[in-house]
Amino acid sequence: MKVVYFVSVNSFLGLPPVKQLFSFYKSSSYQSFYTIQCNIQSFENFFDEKIVFQKEVLSFKDSKSFNSQNVGHKIYKYFKFLYLFGFYFSFRQKKPSVIHTIDLFATFIAILFKKKNTTLIYLQYELFEVKKLNPIDKLLFKYIQKNSAEIDLIITPEKNRTEYLKNMLFNSSITTFLTLPNSNNNQIEIDGKASLNSKNKTIVSHIGAVGLNHHIKSYLDAIMQLNKDKFEFRFIGLLTNEVIGLIESYQAENIKIIGQIKHSELNRYYLETDIGVILYKDVSLNHRFCAPNKLYEYWSYGIRVIGDKLPGLESVFTDKCLGVTIDMSEPSEIISAIEDVKHGNEDKRITRNYFNNYLKLNHYLNQLASKLSKNTSGK
Q1: What is the spatial distance between Cα 200 and Cα 50, in angstroms, rounded to a whole number?
Q2: pLDDT exceeds cutoff 50 at 158
Q3: Largest CB tally within 10 Å, which of 118, 137, 154, 323?
Q4: How far are the Cα atoms of 75, 173, 339 from residue 272, in angstroms, in the given order?
Q5: How far is 10 from 102, CA to CA, in rounded Å?
Q6: What is the structure's pLDDT at 371?
Q7: Residue 59, SS3?
């Protein structure tokens, strides 16, 4: 019986796709799991089951406190992780293992202590730019570059990211890659033509974090030109104080700030939403090659989406029933898109059926199972 590890000096809890991976392993008869990670108390702990042995590196109240770690926290995290990984994997674990990492330090340590019966999988959800790494992370990445053949599988959520990493790794011809979209297996039943909101307004929702480096200003300018009696705009997720101040400065009665809630509580807001919005701007590779899990969650609920003309988005908007990509820096284009998508949004079942037929996670998990079988054979 293979043991599955999810290890990081950061946290898997803010990554809903990892919840889907965990479900995949459980349904594939894996019965023993270990986690080494930071705990973020405001997030759903989807690993909280009897079959999972959980070890905590550090605990944080919420994502804001996690994102404001000081140098002392970070140094402590590295030593605590090294102790936990060494004790619970290197010294005690004798069974064949599958290890998942999401950060450079954990990947470095996993390569350093890798055993013959280990399959190492790097989940590349946050794309980094080497020139922007701190000196320590640059050294870690150089080591990973030279030893990338020790990584059995690299999973990225977007095809441009896959090619980007292939070009950076010295042994990319040996390492196996898989583009696994941040999709889901949601089973959503939608009756009738309308959304489930109780108002006679079109509900436009942005779900996820928003900073000033998003298309927030042009979006707010567009909102102010739309009929406030016909539209309600919601922000659900973490907002910086600067963004909250900017929103409040518009004094728009039809803008609702819901704030950050647990992923498991989003269902009602998705059911009430008519149009989804992605506000990413091309300010980094991570944004240019974006692959938001919220995009696929919108579609699983039959919600059409408006987003910017970014390579990561344009490549997956494969049918008009999914929504449209536009120049989000232009309020006039946002207004036109909202009006057009609204008029075409009468039957959510069309979008939901397209998602079920082509974009559901199960369509891709067979590829993962095949690659796992090949990578673990003979180990």
Answers
A1: 45
A2: yes
A3: 323
A4: 44, 47, 18
A5: 8
A6: 83
A7: strand
